[in-house]
Design a protein that fits this description.
The protein is mainly alpha-helical and 678 residues long. It contains 33 helices and three strands. Among the domains are: 3-160, no CATH class; 168-254, no CATH class. The protein has a three-stranded antiparallel beta sheet. Residues 269-343 form the U-box domain.
């Protein structure tokens, strides 16, 4: 069993039960004795010392049995099997007690841990009672040791250390004070941390990361969640307030720039678009009807069964009752839920308030975060340059995946001082500030605060002249999140330098920078007024050159998505046709392996044919390999790709029929002329 992948308190599931049990048992004692005897136990010190002593006695017994080559009876085999199982459990418990980052959590579970040790030690006595020591060829000294061990294991008291109980009571006091909206004394918190040897920012951060992992493994109804949440709030407060300086190397690896937007370009949809227009609940099985509107399958089926033949949203008459699964939107909703730790109840009922679907923090955690947010806002405003940098980094960590943290940090006013740090001449400070703002921009209140405080021009400044390339790509990601709001799309597009700066990043940026810039432009193009600005900035030639020169399929798909959006209007089609991109697109629709990329190609070809007329259709009709590819997409592509491929096939067939008719008509006229003019 790979213990590193297990949650704490996992126990061995298999007992050995074969005549060679003593060999396996003898081998299992070494990790307990050699690895743990010299290790530091933050808690359970007295219990672990005593258990290791008892196991050492057992090992002497095992060695004598092994060396004498005794023939195993059924009772002896059973005894050794039970001892092996108990030793495995003890080994697991000791691993938990010394696991990196688990010090505070293990302290708060001292009663449970000591009870598990008690059960394991009692099992020694039970197993040893089975053994008939007089029948074994072992020395009198070893026999007496084993008999004494059995008595001690049966009668000995195994309870939490008094020091552990006292420290645990201190933590409970601290959590109660947080819950009562009273900021605990920092000296009290420092004494608890010192007791557990949590002595640096890095030590504290390891504790936070351990709790994050435990919470991610919890089920919604897990009783551990309130405790984990409270301890998380306490440790985050300590990391930000108690420990003044970052460890030199630790923070470099704790958090990497996580700005890859990845996935489908539809990520820029507002989460409100994930609700069914009928039920107003989160869609679990979105389907599209003939009018192009999307609903949750259960809701629209109920609507149709009631005899309603009109689209609930537009009022249009339905041409058919066919429901086409919207797999792209379904994947997007699933990714959104995963990113934001939203779960949909198994009963099928979805909450109308998305915030209720997220694991609720404990009151102590919420208030600890509020105190911490106020502290960080003060440091960002009045601190030294080093303190401002650390505060920005703390916010960057706190906002990585926690929606409540984002909300509280925005509420107490951390956005304005973070925006001020964007003008810093220190690359690390500018990076931490822009990364923190990017994560805050995922929250609607964060978007409002950034725009209200005049942050757009500062973001564009970093996008154009960031001190590092990574900062430019983070700025592009921030603009992407701002573009999820319709009025901000208009504002960003009307800002003269925004779209040209994104296009420059597409040309010069890293792969991640290109993807972020493409995503941001795609979001801005959801407002049609921005199409003209993007075309004037020369986006089409840049995208065509990128598609022709890069091998990354994800970048190609994102570029095609932007081209497909531009091709929806006549000016965009003209710009695409002027670059001679049609042969490239026709080649890609055959060669791309991604369904999304193929769908975008077909969309571009369809829009070009619609806007370009017979001149474009004639070019497509001359490509013999195109039609088989389109037929393949009809049967094997996504629902959207299939629909568009079918429409393009119809256009090509009508063109060929019309061309054949013209040729036949032309040959008839020629024959008539030859009859009249011999």
């Amino acid at each position: 069993m790979d213990r590193t992948s297990c949650r704490v308190y996992a126990v061995p599931r298999v007992r050995v039960g074969y005549n060679g049990a003593h060999i396996s048992l003898h081998g299992s004692k070494y990790p307990i004795i050699t690895d743990y005897k010299s290790r530091f136990f933050p808690t359970q010190k007295r219990i672990t010392r005593e258990v290791i002593r008892q196991v050492e006695i057992l090992c002497v017994f095992f060695e004598e049995v092994r060396d004498n080559g005794f023939t195993f009876t059924n009772s002896l085999t059973l005894c050794f099997s039970e001892l092996h199982f108990a030793l495995q459990k003890i080994q697991f418990l000791m691993q938990d007690c010394t696991r990196e980052g688990s010090k505070l959590y293990i302290l708060m579970r001292s009663q449970f841990i000591s009870s598990q040790f008690r059960v394991s030690v009692r099992s020694f006595a039970t197993a040893l009672d089975i053994v008939q020591l007089n029948s074994l060829e072992i020395s009198i000294e070893v026999k007496e040791l084993v008999e004494l061990l059995a008595k001690q294991a049966q009668r000995g008291r195994i309870e939490p250390d008094p020091d552990d109980v006292f420290a645990m009571e201190r933590v409970i006091l601290i959590l109660n004070q947080f819950e009562s909206k009273f900021e605990p004394e920092r000296g009290l918190m420092k004494r608890v941390l010192d007791c557990l040897r949590i002595l640096s920012w890095g030590d504290c951060n390891k504790e936070v990361r351990f709790l994050e992992e435990e919470m991610s493994n919890c089920e919604d109804e897990d009783r551990e969640i309130p405790l984990l949440s409270s301890l998380m709030g306490f440790l985050c407060y300590c990391r930000g307030v108690i420990f003044e300086t970052l460890d030199n190397d630790d923070h470099q690896i704790m958090d990497q720039v996580d700005v890859k937007l990845g996935g489908k370009m539809l990520n820029c949809l507002n989460p409100e678009d994930f609700r069914c227009p009928i039920s107003l609940e989160l869609m679990t099985d979105p389907v599209t009807i003939s009018t192009g509107q999307t609903y949750d399958r259960a809701s629209i089926q109920k609507w149709l069964k009631a005899g309603n033949l009109l689209c609930p949203k537009t009022g249009e008459k339905l041409k058919s009752a066919e429901l086409v699964p919207n797999s792209a939107l379904k994947n997007l909703i699933q990714q959104f839920c995963l990113d934001n730790r939203i779960t949909i109840s198994r009963s099928g009922r979805k909450s109308r308030d998305l915030s209720r679907l997220i694991i609720s923090p404990s009151p102590a955690s919420t208030e600890a975060m509020r105190f911490l947010a106020q502290f960080l806002a003060g440091r960002l405003t009045y601190g030294t340059d080093e303190q401002k940098n650390k505060a920005a980094y703390e916010i960057r960590l706190l906002t990585k995946s926690n929606i409540l943290n984002r909300s509280i940090l925005i509420e107490v006013g951390n956005v304005p001082p973070l925006l001020d740090l964007l003008t810093s001449t220190d690359p690390d400070t500018q990076e931490n500030a822009i990364a923190a703002l990017m994560r805050l921009s995922k929250h609607s209140n964060g978007q409002k605060a950034i725009i209200k405080e005049g942050g757009l021009m500062l973001l564009i400044m970093v996008l154009r002249r960031g001190l590092k390339m990574e900062l430019r790509q983070i700025a592009a990601a921030t603009i992407f999140y701002l573009s999820s709001v319709d009025k901000y799309r208009r504002l960003i597009g009307s800002t003269r330098e925004a779209i040209p700066a994104l296009i420059e990043l597409i040309k010069d940026g890293s792969i991640c920078g290109k993807k972020n810039a493409l995503a941001a432009i795609f979001g801005l193009l959801l407002y049609h007024g921005n199409h003209e600005r993007a075309l004037e900035a020369g986006i089409v030639p840049v995208l065509v050159d990128l598609i022709a020169s890069i091998e990354r399929s994800d970048v190609i798909a994102d570029s095609l998505a932007v081209l497909a959006s531009l091709a929806e209007n006549n000016d965009g089609c003209i710009a695409i046709l002027q670059t001679s991109a049609l042969p490239l697109i026709m080649g890609l629709v055959k060669s791309l392996s991604s369904q999304a990329g193929q769908e975008y190609c077909v969309s571009i070809l369809l829009s070009s044919s619609t806007n370009g007329g017979n001149e474009v259709i004639g070019i497509l009709a001359k490509e013999p390999a195109l039609m088989p590819t389109l037929y393949s997409l009809v049967t094997e592509g996504t629902s959207h790709a299939s629909k568009k491929a079918r429409m393009l096939i119809n256009m090509l067939q009508k063109f060929k029929e019309s061309s054949s008719s013209s040729l036949a008509s032309g040959s008839g006229v020629q024959k008539e002329r030859s009859d009249h003019f011999p």
